[in-house]
């Protein structure tokens, strides 16, 4: 596995790679890799000749109350994991490489951001699309792999790709789960023993909501039942429950379209998000 740290070297290397006719799969990350990231690399390896993973802790994604400096970093560990999961090239640029001093342009997202997690993180997705636009231009991938656990991010990346005519196929990959259904996250280790016993109920409630949707229930009824069920989960409180069209993230009146049923739940020290997507064909 090759490691590249500069934009110039990365562009030169990828031009040569593309000339060889290889299909390039890309997995963008902020490092401190977990099983969700690794599953994306596995999917990329299956569907691409050459896999690029980036590790870049993007300062533009952090809000005023989110500590960029405290974000966990362990490059040696990440390098080993990426190698084990089929990454061929690891792009690991510095902040100075990605945001030079004369860098005066930043993109702004106007759609799909004022719901779900984006509602409480103004500017977050501006940072996401700005850095992804840079990475897409540098790496020139054929396919980009993102986890559907953060389904709002996938929806916004979908809009970015279409709005800016990137010749990239977006692959949304299934959420990786524990045996009891809890969505895997590096934050799960911060759950207390009692909270960890309660946490799988989030996915169980989402499965019940999907069953209601498939059977033609009114979205407002499904949302109300889901909220009621979440209020019976102990040791925390509901952050949000929303049912929206997907990927447009607009309110719906019936389930006769692709739909996301999403929730966020706050335990004492951990905020968990999860979702389930209901296809129009169910």
TrEMBL record:
GO molecular function: ligase activity
Main location: cytoplasm
Record-annotated active site: 37 (proton donor)
Location of the protein in the cell: Cytoplasm
Positions annotated to bind ATP: 30-37, 147-150, 176, 184-187
Listed InterPro entries: Pantoate_ligase (IPR003721), Pantoate_ligase_C (IPR042176), Rossmann-like_a/b/a_fold (IPR014729)
PANTHER family the record matches: CYTIDYLATE KINASE/PANTOATE-BETA-ALANINE LIGASE, PANTOATE--BETA-ALANINE LIGASE
Miscellaneous remark of the record: The reaction proceeds by a bi uni uni bi ping pong mechanism.
Chain's role: Catalyzes the condensation of pantoate with beta-alanine in an ATP-dependent reaction via a pantoyl-adenylate intermediate.
Listed name of the protein: Pantothenate synthetase
Organism the protein comes from: Pseudalkalibacillus berkeleyi
């Amino acid at each position: 596995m090759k490691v590249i740290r500069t934009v110039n070297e990365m562009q030169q290397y990828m031009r040569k790679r593309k000339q060889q006719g290889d299909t390039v799969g890309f997995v963008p990350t902020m490092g401190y890799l977990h099983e969700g990231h690794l599953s994306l690399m596995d999917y990329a390896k299956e569907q691409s000749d050459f896999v690029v993973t980036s590790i870049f802790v993007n300062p533009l994604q952090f809000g005023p109350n989110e500590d960029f400096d405290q974000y966990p970093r362990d490059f040696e560990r990440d390098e080993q994991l990426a190698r084990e999961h089929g990454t061929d090239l690891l792009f690991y640029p510095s902040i100075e490489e990605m945001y030079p001093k004369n860098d005066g342009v930043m993109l702004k997202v106007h759609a799909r951001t004022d719901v779900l997690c984006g509602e409480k993180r103004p500017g977050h997705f501006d940072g996401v699309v700005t850095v992804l636009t840079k990475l897409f231009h540098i790496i020139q991938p054929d396919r980009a792999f993102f986890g559907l656990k953060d389904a709002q991010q996938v929806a916004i990346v979908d809009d970015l790709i279409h709005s800016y005519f990137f010749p990239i196929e977006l692959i949304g990959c299934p959420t990786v789960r524990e045996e009891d259904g809890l969505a895997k996250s590096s934050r799960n280790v911060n759950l207390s023993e009692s909270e960890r016993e309660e946490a799988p109920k989030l996915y169980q409630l989402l499965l019940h909501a999907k069953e209601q949707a498939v059977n033609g229930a009114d979205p407002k009824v499904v949302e109300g039942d889901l909220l009621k069920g979440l209020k019976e989960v102990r040791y925390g409180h509901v952050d949000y429950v929303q049912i929206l069209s997907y990927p447009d993230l607009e309110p719906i009146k019936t389930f006769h379209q692709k739909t996301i049923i999403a929730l966020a739940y706050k335990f004492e020290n951990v905020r968990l998000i999860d979702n389930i997507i209901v296809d129009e064909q169910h």
